[in-house]
Amino acid sequence: MSGITTSGGGASGGGTSGRATTAKVPVTVVGGGLAGMTAALTIRQLGLPVRLLEAGAELGGQATARTINGRTEDHGVHIIPAWYRSTLELVDELGIGDRLAETDNFYQLLPGEFPHFRSYGALFSFADFVKDIRSGVTPPADRLLFYYGLIDLLSQRYDRRDQSLREFLRSRWYLTRPAIDDIEHLFVASSAAEPDVASAASFRGSIAGFSSDPGRVLMPRADLEQTLIGPFRRRLEADGVEVRTGVELVGATVADGRLATLTLRDAALPDGERTVTEEVTGHVVLAVPHGVLTGLGPDVTSALRPKYGAEELRSRPLGALHLHLRRRLPGMPDEHVRLVGSPHAITLLDVGQVWEGHTTTVLNCVVGRTARLADLSDDEAVKVIVAELMTYIPALSWDDIEHVCYQPHFDTPFYAPAPGSDRHRPENSTSLPNLHLAGDFCAAPPGIAGMEGAVRSGRAAAESVRRALRPTMPVIPVQDIGTVDPRSARAAKYALAPLAVGVRFLAARANRRRARTTTPGVTRRP
């Protein structure tokens, strides 16, 4: 292996001159992730001059791809489900649909079964459902209970209450251990949050989204810089948005009921002159992580709706490990793979088969439980993850690995709603008439976060600006995700309850039989 590359933080600057200037642009968007980019584009379409400031060297935030040691490395593995309505609307607006490919299957790999992958697809038909039940990833009875558990979750009303996903699962009398493990792994691999600190209401929302919009899942044909962020930036600049990178927000003040100043650190300025305090004469959209928002102090967070709500939100790292191999690894599918029972909740994609220009295998892995590796050095963490991969893919060896890029993302964690967090998520407008918010942590229907949450909130922030500066122009529509009426799910739950009782009995008997055959010293009865 030639080397390990790890990722660090964003741009930094020096100097504390406190030089004062005045911002003359009507709207400044601070934060160049998907939320800020969407807000800037949509506000510019109102005919307003817009300035977009990003602390890092590139736009995109958690949807970016960066050049690390001469290689383009995505922040992680990205998919766009059919229920990501705002994201798909943006894809159409940017004209980049041809840069995305439809995913027909997902694959699951059990230890000791390589190169036999068990495939399953979206449930478009009863035949797809039967195929999944018979896939053998978990015994059929346990898999049926898995689906009954999802129906039960959809039947819950979380209007005024919430609970952890684990609390919900452990309270269901019919769920077996394999069925619970299946649901928990499905959640951890996509959200980085452990079930005991994850919102059941949020998981219900995402399952409802998949259920109401069961279309094909899309994945990029190249890294996100080529697929999304590069075209997006070119569109912004073509539309007249002023884009500046390397400009970090380090402070803000409030006076006379308005956002009064922004303190910025500009990496492009000479040492000793990098810190500039600007008087705010127009409007500002803060599209920064909730941790940066709360770091601005109580004068800003008290203006949120609800007050100080962002201080109650939490994010968790969702790690990425990219393995560049010297050869094409035989037997690997070209779509997403879930490693069943993976201690670190690993899912992966061989982008070497998907992205143009690759002749060898490139494994892009998402590490859902990267927080478990926080006490290890990067080299030690890589060894743990690769050793785990080798237990699933014995054809993989250290000699195959030409290059490793490990991105634990401890400095850029992923927002994952905790139980009850929806009531703390701030609205896009604030009590300061010239301050607006965007970000995947902003108020949204349960289940919306990540890429869809970012894009949706960018449009919602632009609508807040429209109400203030262009009230006579048409309302900017903000897409909601599809949902499932709890009453319909409850009717299905009760109708299927007798079947669930019978399946639970069969699952328990089968699990006891398997336990007897795998326990040393226990002989099966004839």
TrEMBL record:
<dbReference type="InterPro" id="IPR036188">
    <property type="entry name" value="FAD/NAD-bd_sf"/>
</dbReference>
<protein>
    <submittedName>
        <fullName>FAD-dependent oxidoreductase</fullName>
    </submittedName>
</protein>
<feature type="region of interest" description="Disordered">
    <location>
        <begin position="1"/>
        <end position="20"/>
    </location>
</feature>
<dbReference type="InterPro" id="IPR002937">
    <property type="entry name" value="Amino_oxidase"/>
</dbReference>
<dbReference type="InterPro" id="IPR050464">
    <property type="entry name" value="Zeta_carotene_desat/Oxidored"/>
</dbReference>
<feature type="compositionally biased region" description="Gly residues">
    <location>
        <begin position="1"/>
        <end position="17"/>
    </location>
</feature>
<feature type="domain" description="Amine oxidase">
    <location>
        <begin position="34"/>
        <end position="465"/>
    </location>
</feature>
<dbReference type="Pfam" id="PF01593">
    <property type="entry name" value="Amino_oxidase"/>
</dbReference>
<dbReference type="GO" id="GO:0016491">
    <property type="term" value="F:oxidoreductase activity"/>
</dbReference>
